[in-house]
Design goal:
There is one protein chain. This protein has 24 helices and six strands. The protein is mostly helical. It has three domains: about 325 residues, no CATH class; about 100 residues, no CATH class; about 70 residues. It has a four-stranded mixed beta sheet. Strands 1-2 form a two-stranded antiparallel sheet. Helix 9 runs antiparallel to helix 10. The N and C termini lie far apart (about 75 Å).
Length: about 500
């Protein structure tokens, strides 16, 4: 009991540091955080709780649930970064503990603890988990439905089947068909391999389960179709779901090996255990749970590797099983150097990033990028350097002095502190703070009918508190644009200018 309390206490402490304290440290990041947050703000202002809009135009990118969660949050806490990101942080917290309690049931407290620690402290999840986007909530629901499928397999109890349908419907309301595809294909493969294909067929045509799914998800889909008709079908299902697999959307493309480096970097600092888990294929044939988890991971990895549209966070849908499989591998000894050298190299690279950017700035041809980096030493300042140096010292101490279990927790802590309290705030200060300050200035001075020219940063709308048109400016217009594009106007007055962005008044076009 004492060990259980200790595990839970450590997990709660790490969750607070990783998911909650950083919520207010950075402005909203464009494009995704800005787009989700602005769509939620427009829902609040327009009081249309069925259809989402972005900058006054229909937005069919995602279903409704994340917007409802963010809407509730901003109604309680106001329009700010904390409120927009809070639903994702809460979802990530439940996600972490669902991993812990499920793994403890079938393995041990130690395996459960490290599976959750790997999830909380790994680089990529640490970024995605608290972002004001749909992915943290979706990962919670995918994790819960996949766990319930395995519980149904083991116990043959209908309650787990009905919970699967419930979580699946919530996932369907969060990000659409992917919440159905992953459990459907993985369960088919697993049940078939285990000689229980008939049980699988019965489970997917269970009338009560289907009614649960329909009762939860159909009302919004029906209401949205009633409101928007064919435009909803074309925009949501054909373009934003089938279209993403068929072709690269918004130029988000990559080779079939795109997710290999994403996985290696995204799982830092625990990549050695991740890789060991991936290559223990023969061992998984001996364990139903491990086979199920492996099929889950491999399907997600292969499916998105073959998809036309590729974004780094897509692979996170398959991270939960690999966290558990990697935690099982903690019993194997891997030299500390395999963890220390990559993390140390990353920390050193991050420390010198401002200097490298300054040195090689002359080789960069894109004028906007150069202007963004114009005050890089101001953004990546003393605090940034102190945090990284401190984490290097912590890493070296852990390498020489800590036992295996403290070492594994400590290196994750070093990664989490570096990302949340040094890298993201510094990058946000350089890239997003100018957008935020320009919008606040425009709002404070009461500028009306602002034009956004040759850029799309929806976070500006959030901080401005109003819609910003995207069109060709005319004389007298207030324009938010990139600084290299200022030269396209013959005469203008600069109202605000910093790091690649400017707010100007056009005097003569």
């Amino acid at each position: 009991m004492l060990k259980e309390t200790k595990n839970i206490s450590i997990l709660i402490f790490m969750i607070i540091l990783a998911f909650y304290l950083p919520l207010i440290l950075t402005p909203l990041f464009d494009l995704d955080e800005g787009a989700f947050s602005e769509a939620t703000r427009e829902m609040l202002v327009g009081k249309d709780y069925i259809t989402t809009y972005l900058n006054g135009h229909l937005r069919f990118a995602k279903p409704i649930l994340i917007y409802w969660c963010q809407l509730l949050s901003i109604k309680i806490f106001g329009i700010n970064e904390f409120a927009f990101r809070l639903p994702s942080a809460i979802a990530a917290s439940f996600w972490a503990f669902s991993i812990y309690f499920f793994t403890k049931k079938f393995k041990s407290r130690d395996v459960a603890f490290f599976a959750s620690i790997f999830m909380i402290l790994s680089l990529q999840v640490n970024i995605v988990a608290k972002a004001a986007i749909a992915d943290s909530l979706l990962n919670l629901f995918i994790t819960c439905e996949m766990f319930c499928i395995y519980l149904f397999y083991v116990h043959k109890s209908k309650k787990y089947l009905y919970l699967t349908y419930m979580f699946m419907s919530l996932g369907f309301l969060t990000k659409g068909p992917i919440a159905i595809l992953i459990p459907l294909v993985v369960s088919f493969l697993f049940f078939t391999i285990k000689g229980r294909f008939k049980d699988w067929v019965k489970s997917i045509i269970d009338i009560k389960g289907i009614l649960i799914f329909v009762a939860i998800s159909l009302p919004w889909y029906g209401a949205e179709y009633w409101a928007q008709g064919k435009a909803f079908i074309d925009g949501f299902f054909l373009k934003n779901n089938i279209g993403r697999f068929d072709s690269a959307m918004q130029n988000h493309k990559g080779s079939i090996f795109y997710f290999v480096p994403v996985l290696i970097l995204g799982m830092m600092p625990y990549t050695p255990y991740i890789l060991k888990a991936i290559f223990r294929v023969k061992e998984y044939l001996k364990s139903d749970l491990e086979l199920y988890l492996y099929i889950w991971f491999i399907f997600v990895f292969l499916f998105f590797s073959l998809s036309g549209t590729k974004l780094p966070h897509y692979i996170v849908y398959g991270y939960t099983p690999i966290f558990i499989l990697s935690a099982i591998c903690v019993k194997f000894d891997i030299k500390k150097e395999w963890f220390v050298y990559p993390l140390l190299a990353l920390l050193v690279l991050l420390f010198f990033t401002p200097d490298l950017a300054f040195i090689f700035k002359g080789l960069i041809k894109d004028k906007f990028t150069v202007s963004v980096m114009s005050n890089i030493y101001e953004s990546f300042g003393l605090i940034y350097r102190v945090i990284i140096v401190s984490m290097i010292i912590v890493l070296l101490f852990l390498w020489k002095k800590a036992n295996k279990y403290i070492f594994l927790i400590g290196i994750g802590f070093a990664m989490m502190i570096t990302i949340n309290f040094a890298v993201l705030p510094s990058y946000g200060n350089m890239m997003q703070e100018p957008i935020k300050q320009a919008a606040i200035l425009a709002k404070k001075r009461g500028y009306k009918d602002i034009i956004m020219y040759n850029t799309f940063t929806p976070s500006f709308d959030v901080y401005y508190g109003g819609l910003v048109e995207r069109k060709t400016p005319k004389n007298g217009d207030i324009v938010f644009t990139k600084t290299p594009d200022i030269k396209k106007f013959s005469k203008y007055k600069i109202l605000y200018k910093r790091n690649g962005f400017a707010l100007i008044k056009v005097i003569k076009k």
